[in-house]
């Protein structure tokens, strides 16, 4: 079974993960955060450097950096980590994400007037649905879990990697995995599920994705992408499938698809947009790379104005 280290980034409520094979010390980093202060536009690497320090302390060799989706609430540090690790490890770990990322990149590339040369081929691996790959001697499988976004993945990790005639794409149904890094599909039971009102989001798809996770064995651990704990509890890095089936306020066993879609649609209509929505999307469709500098040497992000019907 893998060793999973969960590092909580409290400003954005994000869980970052290092998942390692204890027998080989090979590891992957999943959903790392790049620090950004919107009041000053200052980018720092405190969270990312903490990941690097932890990797060094444990003696891990990072084989891949993985994204569950293009996040709309924090900037990714994948590109920064790739650059730093290429210096310390002697090779550049590829950045992986789901194959539908091109839909998301094209949409937001047009919306924010980002040239295709800034976001095409910034991800090294575009995973097929249910594609498996090795983490040391462990098996990881990319699960397509749409609903929050159309490109959304989870990563099922555990068991031994099985050789195949086609090693790029292989299913491992016979291999029991005890962990799923589920991104923004399920949250802690008292929070429920993620919103579905982003472009390409769909409440019916999220219900199906949630039930796909909850159809796994009861002991399987579900590791979410975020937690937003109330004052009376600490952040919780995982719950089991069984706990979600009994306790998840949005998608436990007693809730039907019709009830879920109605609840999710009404709830999403009342939510404010994420605080770092525009900044996050513009950096994340670039795979964590910063915008190209202007003639004056500045790197610029676009922020849309809301006029509330005013024209002059």
Automatic annotation (TrEMBL):
Keywords annotated in UniProt: Metal-binding
Occurrences of domain Metallo-beta-lactamase (ranges): 13-226
One annotated GO molecular function: sulfur dioxygenase activity
Domain of life: Eukaryota
Pfam families assigned: Lactamase_B
GO biological process, one term: hydrogen sulfide metabolic process
Keyword Metal-binding appears in the UniProt entry: yes
Entry-linked InterPro entries: Metallo-B-lactamas, Mito_Persulfide_Diox, POD-like_MBL-fold, RibonucZ/Hydroxyglut_hydro
Record protein name field: Metallo-hydrolase
The species this protein was found in: Penicillium argentinense
Lineage: Eukaryota, Fungi, Dikarya, Ascomycota, Pezizomycotina
